[in-house]
Write the structure tokens for this entry.
Amino acid sequence: QVSLVESGGGLVQAGGSLGVSCAASGFTFSRYTMAWFRQAPGKEREFVARISRSGIITYYADSVKGRFTISRENAKNMVYLQMNSLKPEDTAVYYCNLVKWGLDYWGQGTQVTVSS
């Protein structure tokens, strides 16, 4: 079955950088668009970034554009999110997302905390 496992979160100061990763299994990874979402305390889960099957096309939320970079390695079934110039408002649990046959799949999430 589908499995998405995030890793790499942590605590970083404002202005710093952090990368998170997602290891995928249970499906043909290279055939699917992948995405990152995040959820801050007391807020709804929101879209962060999306990457096409080949990795050529990416799309970002306005709030992270120019600071975050999504990438993938199809040979390793991995998707990444590199976060630079982090702000306290980036503090959230970050989730890897797959939509397959109309169903949303999520990992357990990884906490990113940005201190001011």
Notes: Residues 16 and 29 are 30 Å apart (CA to CA). The mean pLDDT is 97. The chain is about 0% helix and 55% strand. The longest strand covers residues 92-100.
